[in-house]
Amino acid sequence: MLKKILYVSGALSILGLLGKVYHDTNVVKVTPVTFMTNRLRKDNNISILQISDLHNKTFGNHHQSLIKQIKRVNADIIVITGDLIDRKTMDFRAVIRFVNELKKMNQHIFYVTGNHERDNLYLNKFLLQLETSGVRILDNKTTYLQHNEEQIQLMGISGDSLKNGNIKELLQKVDDRNFTLFLSHVPNAVKYLTGTSIDLVLSGHTHGGQIRLPVIGSVMVPDQGLFPYFDKGVYEWEKGKLLYIDSGAGTTRLPVRFLNQSQISIIHIRGNKS
């Protein structure tokens, strides 16, 4: 009798574990984050939907479940912080269809490449298709967005900029008169931003460790090794300067997530300047 109870308990535990893995890997949640800034007026609030590390994964039939959630949050702008595809992706139809659906909802879509796009042999073809869909590619570029009569600066670096030194040239264009949002697939970019007037950095890349352990959290993420400092969430990289790492929606290498559900983020920036 005791053996039977142990067998049943073991089987139920395994089923529960598998169910949790399936849920975390295939059901996307929307994570809300709020930042306050004295660089915008009190009545000037902006919402940003961040999508990161999709890795060409599809949620539901043609992303319908994901698209419904994105419609619901109704963000002012959408930013995609890299690894929209995988380095081995050759067929871009699914992701371009998804981007086209995003464009129907929002005309302000900004994108920077991640390391997987930069390693993809068909990168130029992919970027051309994104541009044709109306996505603004911010690799090593800066632009301005008018929001409620105030100007916001958006900057971005490509997935290989930290290796080739392009970031130094870009930082010369930081405008300290405006709230500045900086897009970088790799969170380690903040090491190069010391002393600048950049207010908020949005990144991905880490997948939050993808598989996390109880109590311990993430064991390893790319570029940081064991027990990383930057894995997911909010960090202050310099006094008053913030980094937010979205743990992403897709997977790489192992096609599973655990204790780290697939997500997109809705970021609310609230002005408090009198």
TrEMBL record:
Domain of life where this protein originates: Bacteria
KW Metal-binding (keyword) present: yes
Residue span, Calcineurin-like phosphoesterase domain: 47-208
Any matching Pfam family: Metallophos
Alphabetic keyword roster: Hydrolase, Metal-binding
The protein, known as: Metallophosphoesterase
